[in-house]
Amino acid sequence: MSGPEWGSLEQCLEQHLPPADLREVKRILYGKETRKLSLPSVALDTASAGDFELQGYAFEAAGEQLRQPRTVRVGLVQNRTPLPTDAPVAEQVSAVHRRVEAIAEVAAMCGVNIICFQEAWTMPFAFCTREKLPWTEFAESVEDGLTTRFCQKLAEKHDMVVVSPILERDFMHGDVLWNTAVVVSNSGAVLGKTRKNHIPRVGDFNESSYYMEGNLGHPVFQTQFGRIAVNICYGRHHPLNWLMYSVNGAEIIFNPSATIGALSESLWPIEARNAAIANHCFTCAINRVGEEHFPNEFTSGDGKKAHQDFGYFYGSSYVAAPDSSRTPGLSRNRDGLLVAELDLNLCRQMNDIWNFKMTGRYEMYARELAEAVKPSYSPNIVHELLTFSPRLPRKGTSALSRLASQTSLMDPSSP
Ligand SMILES: NC(=O)NCCC(=O)O
Fold first, then answer.
1. Residue 317's closest CA among 371, 269, 377, 262?
2. Which of 75, 168, 327, 345 could cross-link to 180 by cystine, CB 3.0-4.6 Å?
3. What is the mean pLDDT of residues 163-177?
4. Are strands 226-230 and 252-257 parallel, antiparallel or unpaired?
5. Domain residue limits at 345
């Protein structure tokens, strides 16, 4: 499994493919080419001095007669946790605030209107350990926690919407924890919050020991720059989760994540991109970077040796568009800021061409799913009818024994 030594798929293709082949491969793997944004040199210099990657791309839509282009710039931030996991909690939080503040400065230089940080961005992804302290001390109030106040200042200073995925402590409801994204308007006001709807129970992602599935549904936030939603990490494996944000009108869906190569790297380029296509919207997939070592060993429940690290977080953040195009990914091994300029008119244009909303047959699925979730439901499986045919039975089987074996395979309790 590749660690930091392997930079990115894009670097590998560019290094090894002749230009004509590279063009064709990119056409198929990345769709219509995104235009490279010309970013201010002060931004490029600041990023380079701060040792983080800066890339910028633009997605274009066709000109329309009655609507002006609706361009918005989004910024995706991927980073490693700056301090070791055994540093004091307050110092870890402060260090990652300083790191992200520096990256947000550069985003502002690049004209970013909406910035989104990675999942649980103020902390190491410690849920693998199943330990409570000190990790639950990273949880904060959405309304007036230190991190929300930090994001409000950033939002006001840069006239930027800030999407801040944190570990939430809900002080108003029994101090319980949630995996939450806070949306701060460019005015500096907290516009609202949304919670992770699907909690992983896979590998070392032991998050179900800390918080429950979100209870806020699929809110969409009307910002000055467009309608946005946040589908947190593991939610990207659930097509209906993306769908519901889109049904509520999301034009951009952020997917702040924390995931490792051994588990999901081959899924990564597909899922958010497919969601952009299927839902006629833009999606922004963000993943953290690097390795995080924990003070105590933990096991993965797979018989293998206890260990102290989670695996390699492979970065590779990217933006995907409803016309199937996508930006290249940021690298697998560096902190980075990806700036993408989107023309939101592309969403309706793709809707008019492909008509997935019009042809979606949602009423049929609503009816069938409403039945399927009932305890009394039995799946709609069509069996061959038992009739006496003049044909000879196949060697060694009678029609009766075939039916008997079929039904017992499907459901041992069926008559
Ligand atoms: N953070 C999180 O939900 N990770 C689960 C693993 C994955 O979805 O790739």
1. 269
2. 168
3. 98
4. parallel
5. 9-366
From 10, 60, 119, 271, active-site residue: 119
| Residue 386 resides in a domain | no
196 an active-site residue? yes
Here the tokens at position 143 are 């309304």
Closest residue to atom 9 of ligand 1, CA basis: 259
The tally of domains found in the chain comes to 1
- Tokens representing 314 are 């492979």
Listed residue (151, 241, 229) closest to 193, CA to CA: 229
**Predicted pLDDT at 386:** 78
The answer to the question of residue 390 being in a domain is: no
Distance CA 82, CA 149 (A): 21
CA 234 / ligand 1 centre spacing (Å): 4
Backbone Cα Rg of the chain: 24
393 pLDDT tier (thresholds 50, 70, 90): low
pLDDT at 129: 97
In whole angstroms, give the CA distance from residue 350 to residue 395.
Answer: 55
In a domain, 190, yes or no: yes
Q: Whose CA is nearest to atom 5 of ligand 1?
A: 234
The per-residue pLDDT for range 64-79, each reduced to its tens digit, is 999 999 999 999 999 9
- Bridge partners, 116 (sequence order): 76, 163
Q: Residue 398's CB: how many other CB atoms inside 10 A? A: 10
Distance from the CA of 259 to the center of ligand 1, in angstroms? 5
Between the CA of 260 and the centroid of ligand 1 the distance, in Å, is 8
**pLDDT digit string, tens, across residues 7-22:** 999 999 999 999 999 9
Select which of 110, 196, 292, 347 is catalytic. Answer: 196
- Is residue 77 assigned to a domain? yes
pLDDT at site 409: 44
* pLDDT band for position 388 (cuts 50, 70, 90): low
Average pLDDT over residues 187-210: 97
For residue 99, the domain's CATH number is 3.60.110.10
Residue nearest to atom 3 of ligand 1 (CA): 234
